[in-house]
Design goal:
Blueprint: E1 2-8, E2 11-18, E3 21-24, H1 25-32, H2 40-45, E4 67-68, E5 78-82, H3 86-91, E6 101-104, E7 116-119, E8 128-138, H4 150-153, E9 154-165, H5 166-171, H6 176-180, E10 186-188, E11 191-194, E12 205-210, E13 213-219, H7 227-235, E14 245-247, E15 254-256, E16 261-266, E17 270-278
Parallel strand pairs: 5-14, 7-17
Antiparallel strand pairs: 1-2, 1-4, 1-11, 2-3, 5-6, 8-9, 8-14, 8-15, 9-10, 9-11, 12-13, 12-16, 16-17
Length: 285
């Protein structure tokens, strides 16, 4: 099943995406007598997807009439994985870590799908790259998950865009969180695909497009730490919660400038695009 949060007629809703368009949760509840929350994060947390069946005959909203939004504005946790592909490590002249090179990002750095990446002033950073990645969404509270049960705790998958201020990172690798947390340095969605739709995660190809050309592409099977292992590994260190997001890494990032377009694409999952503009130092206090 493909889920999406969207704006239509000035109202925000969640719905099921199919070949005909979007079936709004409100329509499903009204026609089928269900009480599914009209909120994608709540659907994940309440395991409400089984109630979203039998909707083939329900009215749809054409996809070109909705504005896709972030699946939810504040993920409980956002984990990202650095240098998970050898090609990315080679691109920035770094050594791949033996264990997952994970770091966290704040929700304050997110921007809407098909929205704007606002580059920071040059004195903050003048060398930014954008990285299309596969995102894994946790479906239930879990800790110390055995490898054979990781599949049971994954809700689904999505596309992500993860940005880095490379010049900040070059100053000191300890500045990773700072280099990754600038405003508009992350997005995910707009589509969330439930795990049962993806038969072989390792066969997915992760593509980053830059100004309508392919910047990089590689298969999930070539990751140093693949998605199931990333979930298992992180559950050893902390409790994972429904809606937690793990962005699994990029084959190679695209250096971006004002006026560019960038897009993450994973066939079978979706696409996530953005425009790039230059920001200014505008004090707010």
């Amino acid at each position: 099943m493909k889920l999406i949060r969207f704006r239509h007629s000035k109202e925000v809703h969640t719905g099921v995406l199919n070949d005909r368009g979007v079936v709004a949760v409100a329509e499903i509840n009204a026609r089928l007598g269900t009480q599914v929350p009209d909120d994608l994060l709540a659907i994940i947390q309440q395991n409400a997807v089984p109630q979203l069946t039998g909707i083939d005959d329900l009215a749809t909203i054409p996809y070109n009439e909705v504005i896709p939004l972030l699946p939810y504005d504040t993920p409980p946790k956002i984990w990202c994985i650095g240098l998970n592909y050898r090609s990315h490590a080679d691109d920035i002249q770094a050594v791949q870590p033996e264990e997952p090179g994970s770091f966290m990002k704040p929700a304050s750095c997110m921007f809407a799908p098909e929205g704007e990446i606002v580059l920071p002033p040059a004195d903050v950073s003048d060398d930014v790259d954008a990285e299309g990645e596969l995102g894994v969404i946790v479906g239930r509270t879990c800790r110390f998950v055995p490898a054979e049960h990781v599949k049971d705790v994954i809700f689904g998958y999505t596309t992500t865009l993860d940005l880095t201020a490379l010049d900040v990172l070059r100053k000191n690798p300890r500045y990773l969180t700072r280099a990754k947390s600038i405003d508009t340095f992350f997005s995910f969605g707009p589509v969330v695909v439930t795990a049962d739709e993806i038969r072989d995660v390792d066969s997915l190809e992760v593509i980053t497009e830059h100004n309508e050309a392919i910047c990089s592409r590689d298969f999930v099977r070539n990751m140093r730490a693949r998605p199931f292992e990333l979930v298992r590994y992180h559950s050893d260190f902390m409790t994972l919660h429904s809606g937690d997001l793990i962005s699994t890494g990029c084959p190679k990032g695209a250096r971006i400038r004002a006026g560019d377009r960038v897009r993450a694409r994973i066939d079978g999952i979706g696409t996530l695009g953005a425009r790039v503009r230059q920001g200014m130092r505008e004090p707010k206090f």
